[in-house]
Specification:
This is HPF/RaiA family ribosome-associated protein. InterPro entries: RHF-like, RHF/RaiA. With about 100 residues, this protein is an alpha+beta fold.
């Protein structure tokens, strides 16, 4: 699986890169049909304080899977986004087994 990580309106973070690569590699080991992952970390001005955004897009045979979350720090946003991606992958696996 190829992992592409981009930081938008924020500096590069080695710890966040390692964190997200670790999470995505675990998903890649469990779901071998994942071909590519695109990760975007964004910072936006949000009056509620939830301006730290993590977006993940997975490419695989068939349609793509996308999830995004906005939290008050990037670690929580990445964790929430990977949990949502895993839920979507479980649903996709159930559909594939049915056929």
């Amino acid at each position: 699986m190829t992992i592409n990580i981009q930081y938008v309106k924020m500096p590069f973070s080695e710890s966040m890169t390692e964190f997200i690569i670790n999470k995505l590699n675990k998903l890649g080991d469990r779901y071998q049909w994942i071909v590519k992952a695109k990760v975007f970390f964004k910072r936006e001005n949000d009056p509620s304080g939830n301006g730290r955004i993590c977006e993940i897009e997975l490419s695989m045979p068939g349609s793509q899977i996308f999830a995004s979350s906005s939290e008050h720090n990037f670690e929580l946003a990445a964790k929430e986004t990977t949990l949502e991606i895993e839920r979507q992958l479980q649903k996709r696996k159930a559909v594939l087994k049915a056929h």
